[in-house]
Amino acid sequence: MYHLAKLGFTQSYTYFTWRNTKWEFCEYLTELTQTDLSEYFRPNFWTNTPDILTEYLQNGGHPAFIVRLVLAATMTASYGIYGPAFELQENKPREKGSEEYLNSEKYEIRYWDIERADSLRDLITRVNRIRQNSPALQTNLNLRFHKIDNEQMICFSKRTDDLSNIILVAINLDPHNTQSGWVEIPLSEFNLSETQPYYVVDLLNDIQYKWQGPRNYVELNPSHCPAHIFKVISEI
């Protein structure tokens, strides 16, 4: 993949699909965004493909699809989904141990009820609108991971050079259980005061939180929503 990128391919498939733990994400994304790879490699994160239905999606239920969507859509400037299989949360493999879909479109013509009540279409639309309205999410060079004292949670930010747009993402990687932790915010890098409160607005649901200081508490129940996409602002 790296060789093809050097030859001029402007979109590159990646191994994001099989990364699941915080350690794996931090290591892989640091390699892609903070080494010389960033000079020529343009990663495209896919949640799934016609050939790949990962074990995480097979076993994680509804929250797993949200986790993978938010990870792919916010970690990189370019992402994709194989839908409507993803929108309708198809999660049955051809056989045990397989990553291939049961009733794959590769072998038969499928009919998709895209109006189903459980479709992720509205959430996908909202996430794409967040990406469109957030310049910080439109590049790969500004990704930074932040400490959070729970290995089942990951937190990272992207920001524009002038700090006019700061996006902070917190995700519960465990699709089955509520997870919580204290996240450490680099106040000086965000040009935020050590003593004055600041605000984070969850762009997924428009709920606003008032924070103060470098350490703040985050709790995510996957049955409700396993992710926050915060916009950080100094004052309302």
Short description:
The protein is built from four helices and eleven strands. With 236 residues, the protein is an alpha+beta fold.
Q: Work out the helicity level.
A: 10-25%
Euclidean distance between termini CA atoms: 45 Å
Give the C-alpha Rg.
18 Å
Which spans of ≥5 residues are poorly predicted at pLDDT below 50? none
Overall structural class, as computed from helix and strand content, comes to alpha+beta
- The amount of beta strand, in percent, is 15-25%
- Return the average pLDDT rounded to an integer: 95
Q: List the helices and strands in order.
A: HEHEHEHEEEEEEEE
Spatial sequence of strands, sheet with the most strands? 4-5-6-11-8-9
Number of domains: 2
* DSSP helical segment count: 4
Tell me the total number of β-strands.
Answer: 11
Tell me, what's the shape? globular
User: Tell me about the biggest sheet?
Assistant: 6 strands, antiparallel
SSE order and pairing:
Blueprint: H1 2-7, E1 12-13, H2 22-33, E2 43-46, H3 55-75, E3 79-80, H4 121-133, E4 144-145, E5 153-159, E6 166-172, E7 179-184, E8 198-202, E9 207-211, E10 215-220, E11 227-233
